[in-house]
Amino acid sequence: MADLRTELTVLLEDVRRGHVAPEEALDRFAELPYRDLGFARVDTHRELRQGAPEAVLAEGKTPAQVAGIVEALLDAGAGSVLVTRADEEARAAVRALAEDAQELPLARAVWVARGVPELRGLVTMVSAGTSDGPVLHEARIRAELLGTEVIVHEDVGVAGLHRLADALPDLLRADCVVVCAGMDGALAS
């Protein structure tokens, strides 16, 4: 989001120098906190305020709406945009919008990463079973876009604790642990 700060500084300098009329600058500022697309008010300042970009939940939106939101965020200088719960049509709409879009169908996710923060912190993620994979990988992608190193251990289960043994060193050195454990959440305990 440093790009947005730089852009704002340049805009203010241009006003001071007389290169941009105050009215034009005011019009640009009016669009900054959010962008009203008619069907959505896209928070274009979340990354600036919180250090974490907006994620877009595709479920319940048309592919065109998803693409419109992603475009608004990218136009506003978002370092990354993650679209979650995205079916094939929504992922295709984002891919058509941004050549640098990446996707993982297993996680039902598509994302554009243009300015990921430097690595800081270690997140170890474990899943109880293979059916937890979609949620685990959605969380992994988000953590990576936030600038963390991520180690994943899948299908460690709880029926036999011996399956968890290989993950213990990574769990012990992690700054954060994310557990995806299905409906009963037994792995976390």
List keywords for this structure.
189 residues; four-stranded mixed beta sheet; three-stranded parallel beta sheet; elongated
Side by side, the strands of the main sheet go 3-4-6-5
Percentage of residues in helical conformation: 25-40%
Number of H/I helices: 7
Order of helices and strands: HHEEHEHEHEEEHEHE
**Radius of gyration computed on alpha carbons:** 20 Å
Shape: elongated
Q: End-to-end distance, in Å?
A: 38 Å
Q: How would a textbook summarize the main sheet?
A: 4 strands, mixed
Strand content: 15-25%
β-strand number: 9
Quick check: average pLDDT? 89
SS-based class: alpha/beta
Low-confidence stretches: none
Structure description:
With 189 residues, the chain is an alpha/beta fold. The protein contains seven helices and nine strands. The mean pLDDT is 89.
Compact overview of the structure:
The protein has helices spanning 2-17, 22-30, 46-50, 63-75, 88-97, 133-145, 168-173; strands at residues 34-36, 41-43, 55-57, 80-84, 102-104, 109-113, 122-127, 149-153, 176-180.
Secondary-structure topology with pairs:
Elements: H1 2-17, H2 22-30, E1 34-36, E2 41-43, H3 46-50, E3 55-57, H4 63-75, E4 80-84, H5 88-97, E5 102-104, E6 109-113, E7 122-127, H6 133-145, E8 149-153, H7 168-173, E9 176-180
Parallel strand pairs: 3-4, 7-8, 7-9
Antiparallel strand pairs: 1-2, 4-6, 5-6
